[in-house]
Design brief:
four-stranded parallel beta sheet
Length: about 325
């Protein structure tokens, strides 16, 4: 028998039921396997890691030694198992869970009852928090939970401020009551946006600092003109067109530097707005990185100012 340890199946086109059965399989990834497939059956006694992405078929999984399970899709997972008794880590992300799927989500959460590290996206939490009637008579299934993490899936860097989502008391009890020692963390929209903007801004500032080093404190200076630069030469030639051209070029360069400085300031203000609304503990984690960006931005803007002064003095 051949030994198959890893398998990645993408875009399966098959009528009815698609089956995977292999005793040696340890890692399996299913991606977009939904063309005409109604049921995906997996029997893998040695399967350690299972990843399912955007597969809308019903999944019937027999993997008693599964350690890690990741699901990510636009719609809710349809799952049947005989139990994941060795499950250590699960990350479940449903981008657009419809209200009608709340009961289905509660059902497949039961399959994860042995998980120790559980991550759920905020959109699931929002749906279940508005469907508390499904949780009132349900005991908390997570008896071995050590960590619960909630994070937003849909994050927009710009535009309308994200709507605040609070986890209902009923849902918090459902997730945590059977594991009172578990840690709980919730990643906020503002936190993710701030980290992404800071990462992008850091790259931008590094490029600007490199420009400063290579140009000797003249940031992206235009190619040197062969036109006379001193008043004496211009007066000798008496060429008014050259004088006008020089001033127009100077004004263009000043305007470009002004726009660059305004861009840097607006980026810092946007990040500061996001950092300010974070809880104190999260703000403390971000503050050192933000302070470094402020120092780098100040360095770049100072060089912009120096460049503009030099240009004016040369007039």
């Amino acid at each position: 028998m051949c030994k198959l340890e890893k398998s990645h199946i993408n875009a399966v086109q098959y009528d009815g039921t698609f089956s995977i059965c292999h005793p040696q399989l340890s890692n399996l990834t299913l991606v977009s396997a939904f063309y005409k497939v109604k049921v995906i059956k997996v029997v893998a006694l040695q399967l350690d890691n299972l990843t399912i992405r955007s597969c809308e078929a019903e999944h019937v999984i027999s993997a008693p030694h599964l350690v890690s399970f990741l699901y990510k899709g636009y719609h809710s997972l349809r799952l049947s198992t005989n139990g994941f008794h060795s499950l250590e880590k699960a990350d479940i992300c449903v981008s657009y869970p419809p209200e009608a799927d709340a009961h289905q989500i509660v059902c497949w959460l039961q399959h994860l009852h042995n998980v120790k590290f559980l991550s759920l996206n905020l959109e699931i939490v929002e749906l279940l928090s508005s469907s508390v009637e499904l949780l009132l008579r349900q005991p908390s299934p997570f008896v071995n939970l050590k960590s619960l993490k909630i994070y937003p899936e849909r994050v927009h860097l710009w535009g309308q401020a994200p709507r605040k989502v609070d986890m209902s008391t009923e849902l918090e009890n459902y997730l945590l009551d059977s594991s009172p020692g578990a840690t709980f963390s919730m990643v906020l929209h503002e936190e993710i946006i701030a980290h992404k903007l800071m990462a992008e801004f850091e790259v931008y500032l590094e490029k600007e600092k490199d420009n400063i080093k290579t140009s000797g404190a003249q940031m992206e200076a235009p190619a040197e003109s062969h036109e006379p630069k001193t008043k004496e030469k211009l007066e000798i030639r008496g060429n008014m067109a050259q004088i006008k051209g020089y001033w127009e070029n100077l004004l263009v360069q000043i305007e470009l530097m002004k726009k660059k400085a305004c861009f840097i300031i607006s980026k810092l203000q946007r990040i500061e707005e996001l950092v300010t609304v974070l809880p104190a503990s999260k703000r403390a984690n971000i503050q050192p990185c933000f302070s470094r960006l402020c120092a780098d931005a100040n360095f770049v803007i100072s060089n912009i100012t120096d460049y503009m002064k030099i240009q004016c003095d040369e007039n």
